[in-house]
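Q: What would this complex look like in 3D?
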Amino acid sequence: MSFRGGFLPADAFSLGRESAAALGRLLEEKGLVRISVKARKFLKLTDRGREAADSGLPEEKLLKILSIGEARKIDEIRKDFPGSGEEFNVALGIAKKRGWVRLERVGSGVVVALKEIPDEYPLREALDRLKGGVAEEGDLPTDVVRELVKRGLVEIDESKEVYLEITDLGEAVLSGRLTVRREVARLSRELIESGRWREVEIKAYDVTSMPPTVYPGKPHPYVEFLDEVREILVGMGFLEVKSPIVEAEFWNFDALFQAQDHPAREVHDSYAVSVPAGPADIKDLKLVEKIKRAHETGEGTGSTGWGYEWDFDIARRLILRSQMTAASARTLAGTPNPPLKIFAIDRVFRPEALDRTHSMEFHQCEGVVLAEGLNVRHLLGYLEEFAKRLGFGEVMFRPAYFPFTEPSVEAYVRHPRLGWIEIAGSGLFRPEILIPMGYDYPKVQALAWGIGIGRLAMVKLGIGDIRQLHSQDLAFLRKFPVGRAVGLAGD
Amino acid sequence: MPVIEASISDLLNLIGAPLSFDDLVSSLERLKVNFEGEENGNIILEITADRLDLVTIEGLARAVRGILGLEEGIPEYETFDSGFEVKVEREVLPLRPYIACGVVEGVNLSPDAVAELMQAQEKIHATIGRDRRKVSAGLHDASPIVPPIRYSAERKEEVRFVPLRGDYEMTVSQILSETEKGRKYAHLVPGDLIPVLRDSRGKVLSIPPIINSDMTRVTEETRDMFVDVTGPDERAVRKTLRVLVTALAERGGKIGLVRVIRPDGEAVVTPDLRPTPMRVGVDYLNLVAGTDYSGKEIASLLRKMRLGAEPVGEEISVQIPAYRDDFLHPVDLVEELTVAVGYDKLRPALPGYVDTFGARHLRERISRIVRELMIGLGYQEILNYVMTSGDVLFRRMRSPPREVVKVANPVSESYSVLRDTLIPGIVAFLSKNQAEPLPHKVFEVGDVVIPDPAEETRARDERRVAAAYEDTEVGFEDVQSHLFSLTVGLGIEAELTPTDRPWALSGRCASIRSGGREIGIIAEVSPEVLEINRIKNPVGVFELSLEFLLRRRGERERGEARGVEGG
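A: Here is my prediction, written as structure tokens for the whole assembly.
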């Protein structure tokens, strides 16, 4: 096998394509040959093309049965045409387009008159050429090739030709100016134990080339982000609490002084549970009685109450937890001794159709600071501290309305790309909540805030579609830079 | 929360001061009105649910004048005896018992104003009105009305009039079946009777809560107006009337009082525009707001919120205007104070003395360890929804339906029940990722919800881990070795005993047991289930409950635990 001083197609070896290619690559890695690839496109007649080449294209057949100066009815010509009706239509269309014939309406019919018979027809020339064997794409005019391919008469075969060219190093080896030592790809146990590593050359790698892809076990970015938020809150001295997903309206609404005809309690704003049927088994009937009075007349709280008849049956209805404040209500109802700082991060449920920005199920992060002597400025202070720890520099507050807090405040942070974004709804729990639970109001105050943590995660993780927080796409999860959850890269 | 659209020029006219657009927006935002956008000379605003008075443009202008210091304190509205009387007949009580009415004379309505009044009426119906169930209001041109007015119940067939913007006379039955508003609200007036307001000549003014008569249609030319508000809740009815008549009075009208005579002969004069007094301690306001103002300073700040306020010793004597109904407790004055001060002026502070110690919930701490072990075993974490469908839980697992938590009002069948096991969601996940390179090793740590009559809310959440391994050649033993790595990592001694599941390959399914209790399941997924989910490779799965770990840890800790650990 000698290929000194020139190119050879890889096929030229008696090795077979596969082994020649492998050998070529090996020689290339060693710098003995250079490999180049040429892509070529060959034109080939299809079965239909071969038939047309032999017995004529439809338009050629049409020309044969017409004579100059004679106008004939279209139906007559159709009868004489030696091919199918479909072919006839094709032929007539082409003949008209090329200006060979003229169509005229005479009475109720159409007549066809032959205007000229072309001297040359490029399609015919191409077919004749291809009948003789293959041609390369560039051998024929582009528009002719395009038309033949479109009409299914010709197909294009692509093929690659690989060429090997010997390098200077290769020449040197061949001429015997260099000697060849045995080279190994891997250092092995056998080589180390036997000491033969001394005799071999350990192959140098192209350390800049990309490795094969592996799919390691990886945390989910959203779970990781939620854990990061937990980390921040624990660092600020908050204790995590839980509450059940299937919840009694009592804890979700009534204990939070949300009136029973409050719009948020209507059927389109929370999921009613039909199985299990309920009612909830609320055990602390003393608390129930106090909350009933707070709603009805405000008795014992200094409030006027909502002035309606409170219904325990409504309070005992089962729903899917619609706000994490339910977890705060349950914890505070246990009347722990202040000071207390709690948080809850979990899923809440609302009857929404799932789309880019809405979800029937999303996470909320709820926090409460319960202590003596707290005021509105402390609420702002905790929110500011939390925002800072999440990596936001500027915080702004605006008044808001929530049924269970007064005053109520919304916190916004400045995002470098998105501008001001709302991160938390917050406020001081109303006396109608704290007093029935047994707290010494106004000495003891509860600062509370709720964060749509999913939206914040989207900002931090650089996700534009809320459904991606629960992505069903393994490729997305495999590629996702989880480090964004702790502020590495991304926003 | 209601969203309203206001003509910027009309709003600025009512405010009565030249304001730049930015200043207008920032004043509104200070008043907790959310700026949503601007379109064709209109400003789009979101009003909070507690401030019904701000759904009227006139009310917005009134509040902005206060915060800008153009006009302070409680607005005074001139009233007079209109001489109108509304007689309530006994028959209407079971249908829609309460009515409150008012007259406003001498209003100036621009074309924008007519549209804005209609909008305010719509928003009132949508919010406090609960879609006209709780409150409905009618605005009339008062000039064709000859008092006294009768509020009674009549047979639907016998009441005929031209409905608002209608062309011909119709019976109520026709209105309810043929007009848009009639069809929309017909469900509010079942039965043969309908509430009717007629004047002394017998002319129909309206059939609350459906539609007014065209005779009293309000136009730009209207100068004197009659307002009726009806509903089953007296407090809401009277409050709505106060909001509407005071808004109209902001357009230069004088408020005329109406005598409503109840069937028992008792006469009530509406609207009642007397302010509500409230006393609050200066200390209390400063304590909650975190401020240090004198009584005089506080009173002046509250007057900017259009309240009447005078310092009296250590207290503030506050007068709350009749159009506001959001003061249940003195705490509601704290917000008036903080809003008047402005949140940009309240300095954030940390108390410094609140010594508490933080911790994650045990459930999350254990979950974290499980997640780390699973990731170490090469599994990708996934996160599915707790809400799912019977199709995913049962049909696609070839399993007969079980009792699971179900919602009564699902938006989509795909999210209508709560999962009681993690495995079907993981199988569904694999099914959607068949084009992705193998192997597929995925796991989820999450809650399932199990109906349980012994629980307070008849169901309990259970934290579990589940994993699936899909590859061209995967068997029971592959996931089995991963399961045992996990249990060893968690310090659990687990053993397997043969069992069956409808979705598992027979003879390759085992119950995971520890300490005599079943704590999980491990199996190869049956080819039937693979086929129905279009999964092309064998799949091994396991699911393990983490609750017993929580209990075990809980038992160990009992007695030494201090403070609360919720849940």
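A: To summarize the key features: Residues 362-552 of chain B form a domain with the BirA Bifunctional Protein; domain 2 fold (CATH 3.30.930.10). Chain B touches chain A through 103 residues (CB under 8 Å).
Q: Very helpful, thank you.
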